[in-house]
Every structure is written in C-alpha cells, then in structure tokens.
Specification:
Radius of gyration: 18 Å
Structural class: alpha/beta
Number of strands: 13
Bound molecules: zinc ion
Number of helices: 9
Length: 263
C-alpha cells in the first residue's frame, strides 16, 4: 500500500489522500477536495484513480467529487446513511465492509459517528495499520460536533473503537490542526513534555511533508485520550467548578470538547 498525503494549502487546512496498490497502480482518493492536485499527483505517479471515499458529508470533503469523478470515472463510496447528504453515492459503506484497491490493498470501513452521524474512517489491513480518520481524530485533537454531530457519540467512538486500535496505527487526519491542538493540550497539561517537544518539532514544519503520528504518540499528547489524567481533570475543574472530584471519562471528554469549542 502506498499512501500519498496531499496538502491542499487552503484556509481550512485540508489533507486529501491517495491510497494506491503497488502492483496495479489503481488508487483510491479520500475526500479529494483539491481534485486538481489529486489528479496531478496520480498522473505523476502513473496511478489510475478508480474509487473515491468521502469520510463524511461536509463540503470541504465532498466538494471535489464531481470534477474528479468526471475526469476518472471513479466510483463514489460513503457511509450507507449519507445518501441524502452526499450526491451520487455508488456504494454505501457498512461497518466492517472491506474496500479493495487493486490486488494488494484492503481497507476496512469503520462507522465512527460524533463529528457527524454519517462518518466513516478507513483502517488498512497492513502489518502496520493506517487509519484515515477524516474529522473524527486529528493529530492531538478531536473533531468538533457543531456541524451535525453529538459529543456523546464522539466519546463512544473514541473509547469503543479508536482507543482499541494497535499502538502502531498511523494516523492520517482530514485537516492539519496539529499546532493549535498541541497548544490546547499544553494549556491543560503544561507539564506534558512530549507535547511540548512535539510542538517545537512541528511548529514550522512544511505541511507538504507533515509529520505522521501513530496512536501511541496520540495517547501521549492528545487530551481527548487522556481522560483520567489528574492534571487534565484538575485544569478542567478550574474552568468548570461544578465538576466532581473524580469525574467519569465521558464527562471529562464532553467538557474538553465544550472547552475546545471556545478556546
Ligand atoms: Zn467535517
Ligand atoms: Zn473537514
């Protein structure tokens, strides 16, 4: 499996992806908003884009579909319940469905509600798995819920699905928000040395060659995985004085999400 992360350079800081089979050169495009860059990259690599997956229905993820499909004839795949919100779906994805790319690539569809209620992530069946996480999981952060989602569902997606993936899972998110997200982490946990070191490392990185994190690193620097940290809870209680001494992880997650909305 070959993964090409495509930095759009737009105001929303989207990442698009091409996932290709080494043997056949067939490729799948994830959320190809910048369809020109995706088409140019595929041409330069000698790949043939045969499928598009939309992680969810927001315009900055589906806005390149029409032009890319016109140019390639690719099939469009998205969450099975997104037929009313994403025009032209050819294949509706259910949890556990396997999307094949060429002969060598298998991607498993995960039903990951929270950012929106029709959101899929793709998990590669490779020795080191890769997760294409859309707007559910960002580097050092989590998606917001004010475009049709619910924080309770996002919490369940984190604990029931993301938290259980192998530590060596590579994370490929839908946006480059790593700097802001690490600053949010450090505002809660000023003593998180790993987050501080990572912020120094990425603060002036070239997004065309962005650092790819794995889940082990996320669990160390992403506040939304650190729901039992006494430091996180203490900092949160300063902002929400009514919070119990030992709040349950779900309450911590929802309060963190609420705080991040206005931070
Ligand atoms: Zn979104
Ligand atoms: Zn987005």
């Amino acid at each position: 499996m070959i993964v090409e992360q495509i930095w759009t350079g737009n105001d929303w800081r989207n990442f698009n992806y091409l996932i290709a089979c080494r043997d056949t050169g067939e490729a799948l495009a994830v959320d190809p908003l910048d369809y020109r860059k995706c088409l140019d990259t595929a041409r330069d690599k000698g790949w043939n884009i045969t499928q598009v997956v939309n992680t969810h229905e927001h315009h900055d993820h589906i806005g390149g579909n029409t032009e890319l499909i016109k140019a390639t004839g690719a099939k469009l795949l998205a969450h099975q319940n997104a037929r009313n919100s994403i025009p032209g779906i050819d294949v509706g994805l259910k949890p556990g469905d396997i999307v094949k790319v060429g002969k060598t690539v298998e991607l498993e569809a995960m039903d990951t509600p929270g950012h929106t209620m029709c959101h899929v992530c793709l998990l590669s069946h490779t020795e080191e798995p890769s997760l294409f996480s859309g707007d559910t999981l960002f580097n050092a952060g989590a998606g917001n819920c004010h475009g049709g989602g619910h924080p309770e569902f996002l919490y369940q997606t984190f604990v029931d699905q993301l938290d259980r993936l192998p530590d060596n899972t590579w994370i490929y998110p839908g946006h480059d928000y790593i700097v802001n997200n690490l600053e949010f982490t450090l505002d809660r946990e000023p003593d998180n040395e790993q987050a501080r070191g990572l912020l120094a490392q990425v603060s002036d990185q070239n997004p065309d060659r962005a650092l790819v994190t794995n889940l082990a690193l996320e669990k160390a620097v992403n506040t939304f995985f650190r729901l039992r940290s006494p430091t996180v809870i203490r900092a949160l209680r300063e902002r929400f004085p009514n919070l119990a001494d030992n709040p349950d992880p779900k309450t911590v997650f929802i309060k963190l999400r609420e705080l991040r909305n206005s931070w």
